[in-house]
Amino acid sequence: MNTKPVHLAVYDTYADWETGHATAYLARAGHGIRTVGPSREPVTSIGGLRVQPACALDDVGPSDSSLLILPGADLWDTGDDLAPFARKAREFLDAGVPVAAICGATAGLAREGLLDERAHTSAVSFYLAATGYGGAARYVDADAVTDGGLITAGPTEPVAFAREIFRLLGVYEGEVLDAWYRLFHDSDPAAYAVLEKAATQ
User: Fold this and answer.
1) In this predicted structure, what is the pLDDT of residue 4?
2) Measured between alpha carbons, how far is 90 from 18 in angstroms, rounded to an integer?
């Protein structure tokens, strides 16, 4: 397992519900989670949670991390405040370190040109089209998409988003990954038995 931490971006208005499944089960699997903000000053989520970032964006590089997670936020659509996070995503991807973006963060990556050559998804195609990006032909109508080290998902798919993260990092695989998804997405009671069996092996 990659022992480098997973970095979770946090910034004012970030959508706190979009990454909870991913970070909780990454932590349970032994991955360290470190929050990274614009600075080390506290930020406040859409839900009113006040978070003290563990580190500032300028202090984090691809060599320090196994994954950068970018949640959605109102700020992605109201100006350029979060553009440095999209530029950091480019730095990670150029170095071969994966990035996972959900909801409004996908629009930020579209503006940065990171979706032009990769299959991707988001809330709806016209949401990304409004950015004027060049990747509309690569849009996929799916719950979550992974291509070239980049995971994308829309705001209603935090479980599928987590599934793709787990697959990419090797946290769960095969029938165990499928069972995790069925349990948390579909409330399938049969999936619980699969997970319980895997936990005892």
Assistant:
1) 94
2) 21
Q: Residue 131 corresponds to which tokens in the numbers above? A: 């950015």
The predicted model scores a pTM of 0.96
Helices (H), the chain: 20-28, 83-94, 104-111, 125-129, 158-169, 174-186, 189-199
Q: Which residues of the chain carry a pLDDT beneath 70?
A: 1-2
Largest CA distance in the chain: 50
Strands of 99-102's sheet in order across: 55-56, 33-37, 6-9, 67-70, 99-102, 150-153, 144-147
Name the catalytic one among 103, 115, 179, 191. Answer: 103
Residues with Cβ within 8 Å of residue 97, at least 6 apart in sequence: 62, 65, 66, 67, 68, 149
pLDDT of residue 152: 98
- Distance in angstroms (rounded) separating the CA atoms of residues 96 and 79: 28
pLDDT at 46: 96
pLDDT value, residue 200: 85
Active-site residue, 55 included: no
